[in-house]
Task: inverse folding
């Protein structure tokens, strides 16, 4: 077995497969490219998914790489086992429809036994039980001992439907002394004796939706060998952490903490955690990941703060992680030169985040420590979600960090309660954002505005001013909402009814999302922004990315507003004047002077005229001239707007001319489509039109067409004949309704007659009770009226049941009222029996109830009250 450094081993692998016709590619970034399904690259094949699925053609059918990867699924095991790491490198060789098992198995064996000189008698392989092809190749084309071939059911790689296949793993026996002592210990055991060093995946099937495994026409190979694992074998180290790829970082952590390595199991775990995490964060930041509370940034923050916490447990009170970058850069010199080239930047990012957590770590640990003591004293095992969230929100403890510390003490965190508190905070933040009309402005009199400018073509700028909560500051961290002023900006500021531009500002240390752009009274443009990653500082240079889709949508709507005003003047009259407007990416709103609503014909004509100008695809003319000159040319101006001596005139040739400082399309054809969706009154003498353009209008019209087609299908008609079909159906419905009413009337008469037959006399009062089949209270009331009309002196107590709801009515004749009958009092008592309530006048009352099974009792109660009311 030949000793090799980690870097030598990597080069040996890549060089070997280059000799087998493979294209050597550099490691892809940890940030997946065009793959929203992945948070970070966690496997060697991940960057090649489009090649495996056939969506893209690979540059070569044979490729080899050493891919940097990050996984945090088992982060709590880092430092506690020999092999768990958050960062690792995956050596791999890949075939895209080229070679298959007959080539890859002998190559893997040759590399391990010839190039690395691993002892043949120590190597084992596992195969899928049904993979006879792989078994035969292992037996015939390698020197593996037949007894060292193990069949395992889990040697089959698949993720849901799609490409999949059996795999074959290669293990090395590290000796009985590394094992669990079980006489049946073999590859696949959880102990450290049999170390998996390489996995060969044979992608040969397509797992279909109906559960079938269809052989692929072009079979693929995907292999993965852990660099650190192989290095531990060649360097004869007990764990990955003692290899030259990690041990220098352990030595550093041991030195700064004053804690010897291999002196204490608990402190060894912390030293290993620091080494692993320090390497991870350096490479993550190198690839452009910045700390934040979401996505990849949250993973980075979690790893970094976990390392700080373990440093504190070793007695490290000062910042220490930034200096690990020098060591990591030295380990990977000539491999990941970005570590050296961006060293100062990486150290600064780490230092800022570490300093931020240091300021709250001690207080948070005190709060958590006190909470743990209280739980143990009260013999409880669950920390409340409220305390867990306070640690997260106030002291910066990632949820997983709090959970891990609790687990170390045999306790749990109330996840449901934590999530509830998180949701409350999001709702508060959402409400605050919705309520906030602006960012409070600090005293900016010291700002030299003469050096600020607006340039629509600018792509880079320098941050010259930052404020938060109306207080000037030099920096912002993720999660902060603030005002930002740049030395030059291409962002259009809110004005003239048009919303301001939004977009992204990206600096070396962080990223900000601009949600709106506004203008101070002196004309200075400022940006309302949320820091979404890392931090932003005064003096930082940022790259600007305006949301061009939203900007174009706003421009469409703004130009369409001009066209609409001109169209209205032609259709309604020159007396039409703009009374206000609002332009957003989603729609336009135009308020104008008019004391009468526009007719459907006027709206249709205005819409037609606007679309006519769009179809003419006229280039807009934008000029700057003196205000008087513009007005002489006929340019429209808002009465309420203040203009300078030199004004900007936006003209659609032969149709519209207005003074305007807003964003517009270059050509009316860019608007695409214009559609009025409403016209209404907003104040006395002021009407409002709302309209849409572009994609929004297209989707709106398509939606209406789909609705029309669906309606036509329902009535078994073509869309063209829908109107006449609906007219015919309405006419038929009216006739049927009239017939139904007549039937109901006849039914009510029959019900009334049947009820009268069963009438009983109580103290000279004829009482009719009964349940009838009516659909609503109105019909029930009609039957009661009809019944009482046929009684000289009587009371009708009737009920109807619909969908388990009971309607009850009591109707009395005038002569019965004179004898003491009070319908309201009768129904109050009767309704209570069926779980309801009601009341009314002496001659008529109604109620509702819930329990139809007690109607008989309710009728009897009514009779009892009638008898009581008519006693002499």
Result:
């Amino acid at each position: 077995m030949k000793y090799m450094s980690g870097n030598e081993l990597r080069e040996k692998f890549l060089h070997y497969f280059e000799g087998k016709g493979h294209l050597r590619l550099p490691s892809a970034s940890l940030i997946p490219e065009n793959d929203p399904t992945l948070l970070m690259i966690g496997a060697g094949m991940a960057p090649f998914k489009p090649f495996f699925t056939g969506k893209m053609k690979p540059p070569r059918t044979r490729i080899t790489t050493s891919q940097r990867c990050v996984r945090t699924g088992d982060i709590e095991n880092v430092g506690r086992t020999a092999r768990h790491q958050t960062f690792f490198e995956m050596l791999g060789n890949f075939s895209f429809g080229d070679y298959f098992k007959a080539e890859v198995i002998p190559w893997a064996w040759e590399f391990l036994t010839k190039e690395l000189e691993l002892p043949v008698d120590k190597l084992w392989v596992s195969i899928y039980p049904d993979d006879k092809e792989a078994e035969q190749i292992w037996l015939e084309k390698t020197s593996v001992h037949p007894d060292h071939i193990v069949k395992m059911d889990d040697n089959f790689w698949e993720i849901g439907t799609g490409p999949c296949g059996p795999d074959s793993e290669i293990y090395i026996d590290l000796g009985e002394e590394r094992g669990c002592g079980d006489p049946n210990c073999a590859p696949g055991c959880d102990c450290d004796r049999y170390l998996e060093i390489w996995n060969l995946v044979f992608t040969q099937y397509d797992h279909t939706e109906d559960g079938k495994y269809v052989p692929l026409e072009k079979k693929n190979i995907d292999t993965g060998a852990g660099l650190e694992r192989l290095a531990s074998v060649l360097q004869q180290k007990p764990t990955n952490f003692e290899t030259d790829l990690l041990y220098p970082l352990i030595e550093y952590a041991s030195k700064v903490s004053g804690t010897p390595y291999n002196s204490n199991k608990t402190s060894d775990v912390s030293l290993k955690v620091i080494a692993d995490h320090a390497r991870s964060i350096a490479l993550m930041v190198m690839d452009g990941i910045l700390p934040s509370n979401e996505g990849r940034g949250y993973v980075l923050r979690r790893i970094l703060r976990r390392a700080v916490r373990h440093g504190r447990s070793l007695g490290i009170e000062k910042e220490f992680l930034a200096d690990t970058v020098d060591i990591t850069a030295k380990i990977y010199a000539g491999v990941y030169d970005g570590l050296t080239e961006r060293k100062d930047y990486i150290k600064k990012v780490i230092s800022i985040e570490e300093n931020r957590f240091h300021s709250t770590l001690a207080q948070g640990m005190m709060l958590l420590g006190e909470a743990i003591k209280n739980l143990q004293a009260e013999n409880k095992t669950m920390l409340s979600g409220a305390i867990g969230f306070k640690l997260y929100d106030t002291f910066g403890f990632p949820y997983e960090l709090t959970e891990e510390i609790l687990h170390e003490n045999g306790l749990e965190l109330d996840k449901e309660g934590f999530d509830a508190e998180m949701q409350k905070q999001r709702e508060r933040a959402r409400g605050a954002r919705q309520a906030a009309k602006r960012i409070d402005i600090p005293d900016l009199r010291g700002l030299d505005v003469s050096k600020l400018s607006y340039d629509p073509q600018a792509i880079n700028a320098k941050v010259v001013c930052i404020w938060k909560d109306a207080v000037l500051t030099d920096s912002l961290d993720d999660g902060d909402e603030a005002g930002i002023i740049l030395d030059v900006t291409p962002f259009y500021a809110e004005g003239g009814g048009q919303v301001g531009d939004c977009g992204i500002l990206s600096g070396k240390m962080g990223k900000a999302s601009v949600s709106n752009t506004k203008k101070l009274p002196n004309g200075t443009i400022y940006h309302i922004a949320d820091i979404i990653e890392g931090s932003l500082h005064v003096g930082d240079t940022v790259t600007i990315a305006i949301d061009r889709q939203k900007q174009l949508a706003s421009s469409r709507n703004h130009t369409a507003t001009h066209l609409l005003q001109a169209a209205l003047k032609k259709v309604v009259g020159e007396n039409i004047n703009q009374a206000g407007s609002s332009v957003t990416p989603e729609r336009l709103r135009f308020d104008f002077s008019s004391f009468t609503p526009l007719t459907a014909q006027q709206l249709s004509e205005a819409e037609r005229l606007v679309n006519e100008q769009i179809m003419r695809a006229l280039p807009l003319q934008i000029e700057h001239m003196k205000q008087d000159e513009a007005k002489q040319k006929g340019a429209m101006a808002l009465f309420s707007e203040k203009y300078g001596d030199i004004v900007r005139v936006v003209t659609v040739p032969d149709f519209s001319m207005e003074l305007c400082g807003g964003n517009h399309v270059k050509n009316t054809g860019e608007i695409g489509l214009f559609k009025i969706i409403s016209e209404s009154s907003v104040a006395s003498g002021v009407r409002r039109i709302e309209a849409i353009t572009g994609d929004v209008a297209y989707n709106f019209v398509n939606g209406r067409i789909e609705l029309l087609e669906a309606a036509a299908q329902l009535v078994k008609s073509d869309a063209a004949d829908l109107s006449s079909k609906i007219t015919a159906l309405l006419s038929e419905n009216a006739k049927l309704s009239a017939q139904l009413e007549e039937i109901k009337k006849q039914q009510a008469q029959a019900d009334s007659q049947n009820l009268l037959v069963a009438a009983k006399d109580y103290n000279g009062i004829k009482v009719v009770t009964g349940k009838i089949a009516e659909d609503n209270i109105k019909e029930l009331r009609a039957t009661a009226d009809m019944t009482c009309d046929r009684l000289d002196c009587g009371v009708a107590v009737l009920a109807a049941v619909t969908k388990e709801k009971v309607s009850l009515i009591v109707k009395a004749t005038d002569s019965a009222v004179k004898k003491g009958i009070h319908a309201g009092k009768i129904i109050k008592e009767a309704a209570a029996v069926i779980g309801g309530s009601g009341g009314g006048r002496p001659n008529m009352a109604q109620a509702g109830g819930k329990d139809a099974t007690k109607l008989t009792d309710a009728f009897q109660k009514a009779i009892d009250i009638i008898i009581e009311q008519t006693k002499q």
In short: The chain has 23 helices and 34 strands. Residues 333 and 340 are 7 Å apart (CA to CA). Residues 432-437 have pLDDT under 50 and may be disordered. The first strand starts at residue 23 and ends at 24.
